[in-house]
Request: fold
Amino acid sequence: MADDEQLEVADDNLKTREGAEQAKALNSVTDNVPEKQLDENKVKQAMAALAAAQKADKEAQYRKEKELAAVKVTQADIDAIATEAEVDKKLAERRLREHNGNLREAFKSFL
Reply:
């Protein structure tokens, strides 16, 4: 009878060990990922960096537009590009300004 009790205890220990191993394997397979809290300071720093980058981009665009507005172009050149390249006058004027009023370079940019 003692042998039967020892076998039952050994069998229970084996089942418990197998159950623990199976549970461990199941946990490693499932998507049991603990949720992480975002660090508020990191989020604020990232948002501040994005805002600073946007502001710098806007300032650079403003300076570029100001430089382009300072370039002198003639209405005849705008009309020539608009007619020959078959584009609207705003685009023709923009290209002329981007190429410092150089008619030849502005035409080349459309090719």
Summary: The CA atoms of residues 8 and 14 lie 10 Å apart. The helical segments are 2-29, 40-70, 75-84, 89-98, 103-109.
